[in-house]
Write a structure and sequence with these properties.
By secondary structure, this protein is α+β, with helices and mostly antiparallel strands. Helix content is about 55%, strand content about 10%. The protein is built from 6 helices and 5 strands, in the order H-E-E-E-E-H-H-H-H-E-H. The chain has a 5-stranded antiparallel beta sheet. Helix 2 crosses helix 3 and helix 4 runs antiparallel to helix 5.
Amino acid sequence: HPRPLARHLGISLATCAVLLASFVLFLLVGLSLPIIKSIYLFTIKFATNPSQPVTSVATQLRLGVWGICAQSALDPAGGGECFGPMLGYTIPPEILTLTGFPALVQDVGKGVTVLLVLHLVAAGLAFVGVFTSLFLESHAMCIVSLITTILNLLVGLVVFGVDLALIIVGKDRIGPLTEFNYVANWGPALWMVLAGVVLSFVGMILMSVVVCECCGVGRQ
């Protein structure tokens, strides 16, 4: 049976560290708003008329993997009414009433359902890589670690691409509504996913060096 940290100690610890960091990042995004309200995929802010009185109409939407929060000018920073956590992503009628833009919200929200699975799959693959990278004494385990990190990188790239597409699609949907002033921005979740992808790439490179026995790394 392969022993943990019995061979390639430096590479094993480095790979374990970067994959652990990748796991934490993907997991935090997978548990984003409304579970962790400070982490969200993107926001849509609608401009208000300074001459109009402040009302409870939602002027900002924050979308996460598990739900959505609507915030008005009367709410404190980071506050507002949240819906979720929900399995899948069905936006309730209440959110449509709060925003006043039902078609807009429905169109932007449709693509979020896929994200729930992909973020957690990426986190799961990174966690498996953390474990297997400790047992590099076995060449078979090295190959398993390499395959796991490759899959983690691929899923991470897909997740990042979908996250990136969400706001692009959102802007495209809002674009024809030129009478409304709005600002759509990426949230911290996108950059956390990007960091997770970079860390997964580093882990893949480290495992590739061990499997191919290159860069001065050998099995003897």
